[in-house]
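Let's practice the habit of predicting before peeking. Look at the sequence and jot down your guess about where helices and strands might fall. Then scroll down.
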Amino acid sequence: MPLEDTSVEWKQSDSPFVTVAHITVPAQDFDSPEQNLACDNMAFSPWHGIEAHRPVGGINRLRKAVYDAVSEYRHARNGAATP
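Done guessing? Here is the structure:
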């Protein structure tokens, strides 16, 4: 599939959807000031995974820059170390 050309429509017949997992997260009581601060100081990015699972393509390279910038801003604002 053409990862770098976003104008090409991917046909379902050429690349069918494949379910690879189902994740269930139970409800949690998560509302103390300490827990909220810990959550604010975390950073998630699809690039935290192993190399083989990292996003590819030009759009995702742009997304990575945005994820990194937002994380740095949030951590600076909270006075936390950048991960």
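How did you do? Residues 58-78 form the longest helix (21 residues).
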